[in-house]
Amino acid sequence: MDILLILKALILGLVEAASEFLPISSTGHLIIVGDFLDFTGPRAEAFEIFIQLGAILSVVWIYRQRIRTTLLNYTSDTQARRLVANLAIAFIPAAILGFLFHKYITHYLFNPVTVAGALVAGGIAILLIERYAPSGRVQSVDHMTWKDALTVGVAQSVALFPGVSRSGATIMGGMLGGMSRFAATEFSFFLAIPTMFAATGYSLLKEWSNLSLADVPMFAVGFVAAFLGGLAVVRFLLHYVSQNNFAPFAYYRIIFGGLLLLYFHWHPWVGKGA
């Protein structure tokens, strides 16, 4: 067993957990951290896809009672049907665009330089939205309309650009549409379930040939780290947004992205998509 490889898997699993649900971009951080750890290539791409399953299962576990109730009462409960319909509406835009442009995005945009620029731009956008977004018209996911769901879905499409952050785009999109910070955050978690299962399943099928039995320990460590870390991060964020705004994450994005741009200015990146 390669201890160094296991350590890299643990680090990347924790990075996935910390960055998947916070508005700081998990894809962006995995690209950057993977580059610094010299963990790149087809096997690394398959690993990064796989550990996303661990992260999203943490959301399923936390909301297991709500998910179970919604599925069991779908035919008889208007509220349950509304939630499922809104998730379907919000899922469609990114699903269509991702299917059409996945190869182009992966080939040309998955690199630390574009990620760094997106981190800075996204941070500025969060600050502007926090300042100018309308007050919360929708206080709960149960009070969303199909238009609210579509607004979040269109915003999620922007996150196809690596470094934008799926959670950041959906939460900010919801707030721009008039949702409260808490409602937008909670709907972002619910929307992550079908979105990430679909994206991860599709990507794993394409990368399956890059997997082997020798990789099981590494994948297991990353998966568990992402799952346990995800439990902590989701609970933290739900508590955080009830009393605070996203400005600290915006400043983090701007500072981190700016430092990365400076670094890659003096140390040009020459990998895929450069």
Automatic annotation (TrEMBL):
Single annotated GO MF: undecaprenyl-diphosphatase activity
Domain of life: Bacteria
One term under GO cellular component: plasma membrane
Catalysed reactions listed for this entry: di-trans,octa-cis-undecaprenyl diphosphate + H2O = di-trans,octa-cis-undecaprenyl phosphate + phosphate + H(+)
InterPro entries (UniProt xref): UppP
Main EC class the enzyme belongs to: hydrolase
Entry membrane topology: Multi-pass membrane protein
Chief location: membrane
Keyword Membrane: yes
Entry EC number(s): 3.6.1.27
Subcellular location(s) of the protein: Cell membrane
Ranges that cross the membrane: 46-63, 83-102, 108-129, 182-205, 217-238, 250-266
Key words, A-Z: Antibiotic resistance, Cell membrane, Cell shape, Cell wall biogenesis/degradation, Hydrolase, Membrane, Peptidoglycan synthesis, Transmembrane, Transmembrane helix
GO BP term (any one): response to antibiotic
Family: Belongs to the UppP family.
Function text: Catalyzes the dephosphorylation of undecaprenyl diphosphate (UPP). Confers resistance to bacitracin.
HAMAP family noted in UniProt: Undec_diphosphatase (MF_01006)
Miscellaneous: Bacitracin is thought to be involved in the inhibition of peptidoglycan synthesis by sequestering undecaprenyl diphosphate, thereby reducing the pool of lipid carrier available.
Protein name: Undecaprenyl-diphosphatase
Organism this protein belongs to: Candidatus Competibacter denitrificans Run_A_D11
Gene (UniProt): uppP
